Amino acid sequence: MSTVASSTAYDAHFRVWRGDTGGGGLQDFTVEVNEGEVVLDIVHRLQATQAPDLAVRWNCKAGKCGSCSAEINGRPRLLCMTRMSVFSREETITVTPLRAFPVVRDLVTDVGFNYTKAREVPAFVPPPGVGPGEYRMMQEDVDRSQEFRKCIECFLCQDTCHVVRDHEENKTAFAGPRFLMRVAELDMHPLDAAADTGLDRKATAQEEHGLGYCNITKCCTEVCPEGIHITDNALIPLKERAVDRKYDPLVWLGNKIRRRGE
Ligand code: SF4
Ligand code: SF4
Ligand code: FES
C-alpha cells in the first residue's frame, strides 16, 4: 500500500551522531517531516529509509517509559515528546546520545550508573506493628511524595547535572538529582522507620550520596519532562533538614558523648 505524503510535508536537515565505544561523529541526513510528527518519528523514518542500523532506544512513544532520552541541539530531551513544530523548517537539528553516560552505539547509552545509584539508597523501612493496609498518612504527606513518584526514570536530570556531566570523577561520590530526590522522599515520609534501625537518611544524604555537591542551579528541574520541582521540593528541603540536624544542639551533644565514650 502506498502512502500519500501530506501537502504540509517538508524536508528537514538532521545531523545524527553515529558510532560506538570506539568513537564516531555526526552524519548529515535530509529527511521528510509530516505535520504533527515528533523527533522520534523522524529517527524511525531514517531507520526505515536511509540508516537501517541506526540504534535508538524507545518503547512507549508516549513520554511514559523514559527510554528515548537523548540530546537535541545539545539539550537533554525525550525524542518522543519533542515536536518537530518547535523548530523552524530551515534549522539543522542535531541529535546526539546522552553526554553523561558511555555510548553503546549511536543514540543508545549505558545508563547503568543510575541503577548502581538506585541500589545505594536504602529502601523504605516499614513501621513496626503496622500491617499492610493499615498505613495512615495525612493527605499533604501523600501529595508531597506523589510528586516525586511521577518520575519516569528517563535520567535527563542526571544527564544535565553539571556535577557529573563534565566530571566523570564525581560519579562515585554523587548520586545525582533523581536519587537525592529519592532520599528526600524517604526522609520526609512520615511512616519510614529507618531511624529506628540506626539509619540516618539526612547524614547519608551528605556523607554517602553527595548532597553537598549540589549547588541548586535547578538545571535538573528545567529538563524534567514530568515537571517535578526536583530542586525546590526535594533537594533544597533535604539540604535544610541536613543543616538543621548538623546545628541541632541535641545532635551535637549526642555526638560529643558518643565520641567521648568511644
Ligand atoms: S540543582 Fe543540584 S542536582 Fe540539580 S542540576 Fe543543579 S547541581 Fe545538579
Ligand atoms: S526526576 Fe524527571 S528528569 Fe529525573 S529521571 Fe525522573 S522524570 Fe526524568
Ligand atoms: S519512548 Fe517512552 S518516553 Fe519516549
From TrEMBL:
PANTHER family: SUCCINATE DEHYDROGENASE [UBIQUINONE] IRON-SULFUR SUBUNIT, MITOCHONDRIAL, SUCCINATE DEHYDROGENASE IRON-SULFUR PROTEIN. It comes from the Bacteria. The keyword Iron-sulfur applies. Residues 12-99 form the 2Fe-2S ferredoxin-type domain. Belongs to the succinate dehydrogenase/fumarate reductase iron-sulfur protein family. Its EC number is 1.3.5.1, 1.3.5.4. One of its GO terms (cellular component) is plasma membrane. This is Succinate dehydrogenase / fumarate reductase iron-sulfur subunit. InterPro entries: 2Fe-2S_ferredoxin-like_sf, 2Fe-2S_ferredoxin-type, 2Fe2S_fd_BS, 4Fe4S_Fe-S-bd, Beta-grasp_dom_sf, Helical_ferredxn, SDH/FRD_Iron-Sulfur, Succ_DH/fum_Rdtase_Fe-S. The lineage of its organism: Bacteria, Bacillati, Actinomycetota, Actinomycetes, Kitasatosporales. Pathway: Carbohydrate metabolism; tricarboxylic acid cycle. Its cofactor is [4Fe-4S] cluster; [3Fe-4S] cluster; [2Fe-2S] cluster. One of its GO terms (biological process) is respiratory electron transport chain. It holds the Pfam family Fer4_8. One of its GO terms (molecular function) is electron transfer activity. Keywords: 2Fe-2S, 4Fe-4S, Iron, Iron-sulfur, Metal-binding, Oxidoreductase.
